[in-house]
Specification:
single chain, alpha/beta
């Protein structure tokens, strides 16, 4: 079985995205990081932000085989915390001490899990993730979306997540 790391962010720490992540962790062993509890500072052209939690997140990602980005769609966009994380991926292309780590992440599989009050996530939302991963040479292996206008239906989430769990379980 592959080692799964789920990074999630949401304005509601125990909202629909959390519920989706909980369903996942009930189905398959995985590590979860709530990004909003971490100190990931904005991108800095002078790299004056190296004492935050970004490098630790990258190190955790390197230990996983599969990385899941779990994020609700807010106005066609990632949460502010995910946006900061994605902006900081620039460090992996510019800082000599991090370039090798950025390249090592090319051996990982990346998935996007999202919840929204729409039948499907917007192309604009998906595009941010897929284009960033493509630019970095990282594999965008799949998208899982659960509709939840009010509250996440755990039965539906289990059904939607079953393909992902089967893929990861086969290793």
């Amino acid at each position: 079985m592959k080692n799964v790391l789920t990074l999630y962010s949401s304005a509601r720490p125990r909202g629909n995205t959390f519920s989706m992540v909980k369903v996942l962790t009930d189905l398959i062993p995985s590590e979860t990081l709530y990004l909003d509890d971490l100190n990931i500072r904005d991108y800095d052209y002078d790299f004056g932000n190296q004492s935050d939690d970004f490098a630790g997140v990258i190190d955790r990602m390197l230990k996983a085989d599969v990385i899941v980005f779990a994020c609700p769609e807010y106005w066609y966009a990632l949460t502010p915390t995910f946006k900061r994380l994605f902006d900081r991926f620039t460090d992996l292309t510019e800082l000599e001490c991090l370039k090798v780590k950025g390249k090592a992440l090319r051996t990982k599989q990346f998935h996007l899990f999202t919840t929204s009050a729409s039948d499907k996530p917007s192309d604009a939302f998906i595009s941010v993730v897929s284009h960033t991963l493509k630019y970095l040479g990282w594999e965008f292996a799949g998208l899982v979306h659960v509709y939840c206008e009010n509250r996440l239906d755990e039965r539906e989430a289990k059904l939607v997540l079953s393909d992902f769990v089967g893929q990861v379980s086969r290793g």
